[in-house]
Amino acid sequence: MPSLLLSLLLIFISFLDQLQCAVGSADEQPSRADLFGKVGVIRQDLKTLGAHMNAESVSTALRKVSYDELAVPIMQGIVDGLPFNKFVVNKTAIVSEMASKLNETFDMYGTTLRTARDAVQLYYAKHPMDMQVFRPFKECCRLRNDELRYEAQFGSRVNLSYACDIVSLSEQPQFLFYPGKNLTTMYQHNAAGLAALRWQYFISAAGSHMEYPAHSFDPLGPLTGATCVQRERLRHRAPYLSSALPYPKRVVILLDYGSGLPNSQLLKIQAVGKTLLESFSSRDRVTVLAVSSKVIGPCGSEVPDLLDPTTDAKDALFTFIDSLNRTEEFSNHSMGLEEAYKVLIHAENSLSGRPSSETAHNFIMYVSRGLLTSLTEAGAVLSTLANLNVNTYISVQINTFAIVDSDKTPLLWAEQFLRDVAEQSFDKYRNSLSEQLRTKLKDTKMNPPKGKMIVVDDNEGRSVTLTKVFEALKTPEAALEPSYRTLTSWSAPLNELSDPVVSATMPVWHKDDFVGVIGHDLNLNVIADALKYADLPDNSRARLMLTDLEGRVLVDSRLRDGFMRPASVADLEGWSKSDRWKASFTSEGIFEGSFELSVPVDTNTSRRVSYTWQKLETAPFVVLLASEMRPRMASLERRNTQTLSLRKVVYHRLDLELNNNIHAHCTLMDQLSTIERGSVYLGPSCFTSPHAHMSSDKNTRSKQSTRASGYWVYLGDGAGLIRNTGIRPGVREDVGALAAIVDEWQRRFASSPYQKHILRRFVATNRGVMVTFPATVYTDDFDPTERHWYKRALQYPGRIVLTGPYLDSSAGEIVTISHTLYEGEGAAMHHPDDQVFAVMGMDVSIDFVFKILYDTLSVCRQFGRRCMLFEDTGYLVARGDPLLNQGNRSATADLNASPLYAEREPIEGGHLTHREPSLAIHLLQNGMFMRKTTCKQFTSQKLQRLYQFNTSYTDAIRMTGENPAGCTRSEVTPMPRTNAFLAVLDHTCDLQSSVQSAFCPCSVSDRRCLLCSRIDPLECECPCECPFKSSGGVGCSTDETAQSPVCDAPEPPYVTPSSARDVNLFAKLASQEGAGSEKHLAQCVPIRCEQHTTIDKCLGVLGCQWCLRAEDGRRLLTDSYCSPIDQCFGGVRGRSIQGYRYDDEVLSAISTPVGPVAGAIMGVFVLLVIAVYCYRHQVTRLVESRVSAGSGSRLYPTADDDDDDEYRFDHEGSKVDS
């Protein structure tokens, strides 16, 4: 009979599953089906029925707590009662409006640059030579620390009172043109009013370089690791040359690395090659070849393409230069020059060598000592050059760089040879030419452009000065082109202090005298402020990008913080190879357009994305909209005269005391708060000028108070009489809608059995409007729409979504439970495909989620059993210690030997792969349930290895023990209507099961994978990342990440809302309550951990932890107790929140316990690690001793610094303490 009942129940559940699929369940996510394929399992194994019933029970309990505490149905009813307007999405209008804003902004900065140029021209007309010696001026690298002060606008320490100078005393005349204080005064005015200005500078034709504000070149800026002198030598070199010589240049840098070179001179050649590489801009095309007895390039022996000198391309070429080692063969100069010609001819015949429609000028930059194998070789080389000039149709200027030792007598014949090559002096070698060639030369009357020979006699290429390179690249006919004299040139973006910075420059001419170049560096993160925080109809399905004309993305609205190396939109969006040509917007006469593409999701599925673009008129950039938005959407009806009910909310800046009628301030986990009101927070997207709003924190408190008061008065104005002080349209309506829930939250807070378990409740819209209860203070750059709880709720609409855990400095590990609210449909049922209006959520401790498990399932309270929940990427959101379930039974030696928390946690210590490696390995074998994935993170240039669990999987997965009874050691079941999974582990199945027999490698110091050289989809490891080389390099190898999708934007670091001790509220309270009032500021929710005498009562209480173990993490306490969490974090007495993850104690060998067999394997592994380490240490020592004898530290880090050897178990940044 019981079996019959179970069978009938099973059939009924299967019927419900099929019915749910038929009507379109909220639980079935297309993305999961795309990833794992269709799962149509019909449960027939009665053994898993109990697991499904347990998962259903926990899901129901979670939903009940969520709905009861957040009042989700009531909030949805409020939204359904609001008036919404339907509208058609006009993508062209969105792009056009954004292009108009950016045109206006770039034009403002362009006007500033032109005004500065005119001022220099006027000053030069009056004072062409400033009659003062150069020495008294401020040199940037000689500024004292006490002269500088940090300024956020510049991201470094500066002096706003004056400019500083970059000098080359070996070349400077005693008297020269210098605009001095006249230009500094203008620069001071510009910097005060234009937030995007970083550095303003003027470089004269003589090479003197002034820069405002004065600074000493932050070591974290471009050329990280170089000295100040090295950084200043290359400062603004490429922008200067692109403006002074604005015609396109095709350049082959040819490096001699033959046997005639001692190592010291090879290092000089490499330094000169790198210096030359830093001289070219996006208008140019460049590559590097190296010659000895044969010619090689970045792609080996094949003829390389000329490259756009982007950051990636330069890095790849730097790596090639660093890889050169002196050979035993003499250099074949003729072969090297001939191969360089082939590259230029190939570029002339292909699109890769045509940076624009203008005529490009061809250059070969030959860096050599000039050694010859015989006296006749010079004639043979010139004969080769003559033959190339006669038989090819391109004109090439050759510049040579003669490497000499300053302390030795120069080889005059070698220098003369290099001079003859540069000047292409065929007449001197006429007797060495064949009769046929002499005849051709006479008939063609060839007049090749004469180049320059530059002597290099220093170790780091300092003698390759800016003015010498300028003279080497200058062509007389191009210098006379009138249009070049008024042209604004734009550099490629640089990564400066995590911001994308571009340099805009203009040449300064007075009549026919070239005076110099005026320029300024602009922070694109500030200029593209409106684009990053654009008010799109649906931010989750659309993104705006600012690209250059080649389709490289400079700013992306999905990646709002930090610098992203320019990457092709085709890479970022995952376009197929056949569609990549659409990423170029260089066609002349075409200024806007649109197209649709089928973008691959994986090998089997794709999605349709529409792209709309428009070129800017005032800068060489493009606004691009990528959209998957539905054609018709809805927004709250805007009513300017609507009076909002704000009586239950305050502006979140409680520290500014805007609401003097509220005195009941309190602390909530050390955070300033009040339970009398909810708080309204407006994210950056709520303001017309987000950057100005976020940077206002540096203002005085009175200015901040005035600004915040202006916002609040405008929001509450129902008559439309108050001037808007910078809030975007639609924000008032969002505030009014969300504020209506605070009354209900207050009632539920007062009567809730979980008053001591829930940290805060909140709700946020896609504009960034957020209402929180109890009231909470946030920093002005906090963006709720960038948090995982918001994004993941959009990914799983209609479900209960768990994210985290995050580490709160007072409350410990916090898990967020969130849920979507739909756009108003008063007379209809909601569907997961409906438009989402907002996301509700609440923060609870990780133990509170476990408490729900503990209270719901009796199995979780049984001895030897342990329950846990993990979300769809594998992070544990509820976990229990098996010792909690001992009851009256004393601890066994086996359990006592296995601490739950290691002495030092791996970075991914909260992931399933670390906590339960045996289970993770078992689940990974089922590709329909758990899958290892990779994605590209362009902001950090890392390839991330992550896990994805299939929330649409319909059956439970069981792992049986090895004993004869075959009992179930673990059971994992998807929890319906959530993004979580229930795992029940039975340690009684095997008394030794607490000593894991599996191992998943995890780094303890960073997120770098322990082995980056390969990836095995079935190999268990903690989530990690490896550096990758994007396809923007030399292009001669297959992109290692071509099949990997782009990662979601990384979540900004979790920041605890402002602490009560961080805000200056106590001064007023002290005057009212007397001295020491800070100590007496009441807790919003009084919590005394010692009052909770049982596990049931202690679990999940904010700031409390059931203390089980002694200080060593091994021994059990005789009398466990409820302790303040900062005194027993993780259940280990004496462990603090801040110290547990950064403890420098010895990494415990039992952090991932191993059995006897695995222990033997690990012993061999450790020996191998030690052997590899010793070998690499010895090699490194020998290499360093050889390098240090030459040039000391390298000027440029190479990409190879991040590569793995074939067997690389150690890596930079990771260590094992001893």
From TrEMBL:
InterPro entries: Ca_channel_alpha-2/delta (IPR051173), Sensor-like_sf (IPR029151), VWF_A (IPR002035), vWFA_dom_sf (IPR036465)
Domain VWFA: 250-473
Compositionally biased residues, Basic and acidic residues: 1208-1218
Membrane-crossing residue ranges in chain numbering: 1154-1175
Gene3D superfamilies: PAS domain (3.30.450.20), von Willebrand factor, type A domain (3.40.50.410)
This protein's UniProt keywords: Membrane, Signal, Transmembrane, Transmembrane helix
GO molecular function, one term: voltage-gated calcium channel activity
Signal peptide range in chain numbering: 1-21
GO cellular component terms listed in the entry, alphabetical order: voltage-gated calcium channel complex
Highest rank taxon of the organism: Eukaryota
Name of protein: VWFA domain-containing protein
Positions of the UniProt region annotated as Disordered: 1191-1218
